[in-house]
Amino acid sequence: MKYFDAHCHIQFDAFAADREELIRSMGEQEVGGLVVGVDRVSSERALALVDNYDSLFAAVGLHPNDCPEEEFHMSVYRALASHPKVLAIGECGLDNYRPEDPQTTKKKQREVFEQHIQLAIETNKPLMIHSRPSKGTQDAYEDTIDILKSYKREHGDKVRGDMHFFVGGVEEARQFVDLDFTLSYTAVLTFTQDYDEVVRFAPLTHLLSETDSPYVAPAPNRGKRNDPRAVQAVIGAVARIRGENEELVREQILSNAERVFGTTLRGLK
Fold first, then answer.
1. Would you state the pLDDT for residue 104?
2. pTM above the 0.85 mark?
3. What is the predicted pLDDT for the residue at 67?
4. Where do the H-state alpha helices sit in the chain?
């Protein structure tokens, strides 16, 4: 494996027609991935899928607002997390962007997020965090940092993970790096310069590449279904923005994924 997509959803119905063909093509291009659940059903589907492929792994969790009617049951997610191919807990976190009335959902989101953190500590697995601020603010990141700091003081290195689809600024990036969390970027880097300053600021040792597929296809395929092979375009964009050798960037980001997720990826097909 040369590339690792740290966050994809290829268990979703968007890939029903050609999933096996896609995974075969990923293998040919030496692309592996973490298949991320957003609720119980998609977490179970992720596990069923990754069981069949050496280069695919899973994360299990309940997204803060994709499935608001689902209650988080620790016993259910504890059982899912016990699977040997589960490398992370989530996606989980705080999302103030999409709810029509975020104030009414904040209490529940925080409670569920803290349950994920407790499960991550219990299982000694990293967190896959989805936090998104309300427009024009960094509120969700500020709250996420405060929560993580509190748990970090008590549990130290057991509180770790990745900030999925990071859209924060330099100050938020600095605080997450200080907490030893990685920041993962998608193919938005191929069609906007909004995040270039943070990509240049962050230590290369704390960056991951992801696609969030089927969402966010790179230029020139915007509006089409995305897939994990596009992680190669993300690596290229990171190297371009930082003015660094693409092969060195690829190698370091793969090493970062191995460190964060606690597994060996090189040599897998």
1. 72
2. yes
3. 79
4. 19-28, 40-50, 74-81, 102-123, 139-155, 170-178, 196-201, 231-242, 246-261
Tell me which residue of 9, 2, 51, 6 sits closest to 26, measured CA to CA.
2
Tokens found for residue 33: 């991935």
What residues have CB less than 8 Å from 128, skipping those under 6 apart?
A: 7, 34, 36, 59, 61, 88, 89, 90, 91, 92, 161, 162, 164
Mean pLDDT to the nearest integer, 62-85: 93
Token reading at 48: 């069923």
pLDDT tens for residues 217-253? 999 899 999 999 999 999 999 999 999 999 999 999 9
Domain range summary for the chain, segments of one domain joined by +:
3-261
Instruction: Report DSSP state, residue 212.
Output: -
- CA 86 from centroid of its chain's CA atoms: 13
Q: How far apart are CA 33 and CA 44, in angstroms?
A: 16
- Amino acid occupying residue 11: Q
CATH topology of domain 3-261: TIM Barrel (3.20.20)
- Give CA–CA dist 47/83, Å, rounded: 8
The pLDDT assigned to 101 comes to 63
Strands 56-60, 86-92: pairing is parallel
pLDDT value, residue 106: 84
Note the pLDDT of residue 102: 60
